[in-house]
Design goal:
This protein is an alpha/beta fold and 380 residues long. It folds into 2 domains: 129 residues, NAD(P)-binding Rossmann-like Domain (Rossmann fold), CATH 3.40.50; 205 residues, Dihydrodipicolinate Reductase, domain 2 (2-Layer Sandwich), CATH 3.30.360.10. 30% of the residues lie in helices and 27% in strands. The protein contains 10 helices and 17 strands. The chain has a 9-stranded mixed sheet with strand order 16-15-14-13-7-12-11-8-17. A 6-stranded parallel sheet has the order 3-2-1-4-5-6, sandwiched between helices. Helix 1 packs across helix 9. The radius of gyration is 21 Å and the shape is globular. The termini are far apart.
C-alpha cells in the first residue's frame, strides 16, 4: 500500500477531522493508498496538543508554516486557516512542491484566488484540490447516478443550499468569520458556498447571471472583553441564478448559504427537477432520497428510498447501516488520496472540488456582491 506523508497547517476543527479520518483509515476497504500525518503546524501551540496525544506518527510540531514546508518528508499538506491567509500559504505550499488540499473558498477574494490559480499553473505536477464533503453522502451519490444516466431529461430547475443556525444566538461572541479582514466580503458565501456549488458545478451547470439578496441580520456581537463588536460580513445569501447545461439549455438555479437559519443545525440540501425525472434530498433526513420518474399521461408520484452505507469508496460498514458526516469526511479524503495515487478520479462524482470549480465560485460570489450593491442582475 502506498503511503502519502502529510503535514497539517491549521489544527482547528477541520484539521482534527482529518487527523481523525487518518486514524480511521483502516475502515476503508480495497484502497491501495493511505495518509500518514507526520507534521503539524498552528500559530497557537495549544491547538497542536490533540495531535501530540492521538497521532503517534507526528514527528514535527511547529508554529511556523515555512518550517513545515521545508520538511522533505512532507509530500502533501492540508491547509485549514482563515481566508485572509489562503493566498500566502497555499501559494507557498504549491511553490514548495507539496500536493495540496485547501479549505474553501480558496482565497479571501477573486484577486487572491487568481494568485493561487497562477501558482497552480506554474506547477502542473502538484495536485491541488478544494475541500467539500457534500457530494459524498450516499443519497447525493444516488442523485449523481440519476444525472449520469439521463434520468432527469432536460433540467427544469435546481436548488442547492447549506443552512446553518450557529449564529442564530445574538449573544454568541464574535469570531473571525464575522470580520472582513479575516473572512472577506463574501461572508457566508465564502464560508459555506462551495458546499452548495459542488454538485451543480460537477454536473456542468454553469451560472450565467445572478441576482443576489444578501442579509446582515445580527449587527453586533459580544467582543469577549465586556463590549460589543460590529458584525461586518453577510449572514445569509440567496443567489437566484440563470444557469446553463452542457447543451446550453438555460434554467433557474438557486444557491442558498445561511448562517442564520432557524430550525437547522447544519443542513445540506439538493433538489433537481427535470422533464423525465426529479430528485430531492436534505441532510435533515440524511439517508433518505426522494425521486420521481415521469411517464406522459400517468400520475406523478414521489417515491422514497432509504439509502444505506452505499459509499463511493467501499468501507467495512455493511450497506444496510446508515451514513453520517464523519463518513463523508473519510470519503472526501479517500477521493483525494485515490486521485493522487492514480492520476485521475475514481469517477466523476467521486472526486474533490477542482481549482477550476473554486475559481467559478469566486466569479459567482463576486458577481453576487455586485448584484447586491446595485440591486441588479449581473452577468458572469
Amino acid at each position: 500500500m502506498k503511503t502519502v506523508k502529510f503535514g497539517i497547517i491549521g489544527c482547528g476543527l477541520m484539521g482534527r477531522e482529518f487527523g481523525s479520518a487518518a486514524l480511521r483509515w483502516c475502515h476503508l476497504a480495497d484502497l491501495d493508498v493511505r495518509p500518514e500525518i507526520v507534521a503539524v503546524c498552528d500559530a497557537n501551540p495549544a491547538m497542536t496538543a490533540w495531535f501530540k496525544t492521538h497521532c503517534p506518527t507526528v514527528r514535527q510540531v511547529t508554529s511556523d508554516y515555512r518550517e513545515l514546508l521545508k520538511n522533505p518528508e512532507v509530500e502533501a499538506v492540508y491547509i485549514a486557516v482563515p481566508h485572509n491567509l489562503h493566498a500566502e500559504i497555499y501559494c507557498a505550499a504549491i511553490e514548495a512542491g507539496k500536493h495540496l488540499m485547501g479549505e474553501k473558498p480558496f482565497g479571501i477574494d477573486q484577486a487572491a484566488n487568481t494568485a493561487i490559480q497562477a501558482a497552480i499553473a506554474r506547477h502542473p505536477g502538484v495536485m491541488v484540490r478544494c475541500s467539500s464533503e457534500s457530494i459524498f453522502f450516499p443519497a447525493v451519490q444516488r442523485i449523481a447516478q440519476m444525472f449520469e444516466s439521463g434520468a432527469f431529461g432536460r433540467i427544469i430547475q435546481v436548488e442547492s443550499g447549506f443552512l446553518h443556525c450557529s449564529d442564530l444566538d445574538p449573544n454568541k461572541p464574535i469570531n473571525w468569520k464575522r470580520m472582513l479582514k479575516l473572512n472577506g466580503e463574501y461572508g457566508c458565501m465564502g464560508d459555506l458556498g462551495m458546499h452548495a456549488c459542488h454538485f451543480p458545478f460537477r454536473a456542468g451547470w454553469r451560472p450565467t447571471s445572478v441576482r443576489a439578496v444578501l442579509s446582515k441580520i445580527v449587527k453586533e456581537r459580544p467582543d469577549g472583553k465586556g463590549g460589543m463588536a460590529p458584525c461586518e460580513t453577510w449572514d445569509n445569501a440567496t443567489l437566484l441564478c440563470t444557469a446553463a447545461d452542457a447543451g446550453d439549455n438555460e434554467f433557474p438555479m438557486t444557491i442558498k448559504t445561511f448562517r442564520i437559519a432557524p430550525g437547522h443545525k447544519n443542513s445540506w440540501y439538493l433538489e433537481v427537477y427535470g422533464t423525465l425525472g426529479s430528485a430531492r434530498w436534505s441532510s435533515k433526513q440524511v439517508n433518505t432520497v426522494e425521486f420521481m420518474h415521469y411517464t406522459p399521461g400517468a400520475e406523478q408520484a414521489w417515491q422514497v428510498l432509504d439509502m444505506g452505507h452505499e459509499m463511493a469508496f467501499k468501507s467495512l460498514t455493511g450497506v444496510n447501516f446508515e451514513a453520517g458526516f464523519s463518513d463523508s469526511i473519510l470519503q472526501m479524503w479517500a477521493a483525494f488520496l485515490y486521485e493522487l495515487a492514480h492520476g485521475e478520479p475514481k469517477r466523476r462524482f467521486a472526486a474533490c472540488v477542482t481549482p477550476e470549480e473554486a475559481a467559478l465560485s469566486h466569479a459567482l460570489f463576486t458577481a453576487a456582491l455586485e448584484s447586491q450593491k446595485h440591486a441588479s442582475t449581473v452577468a458572469l
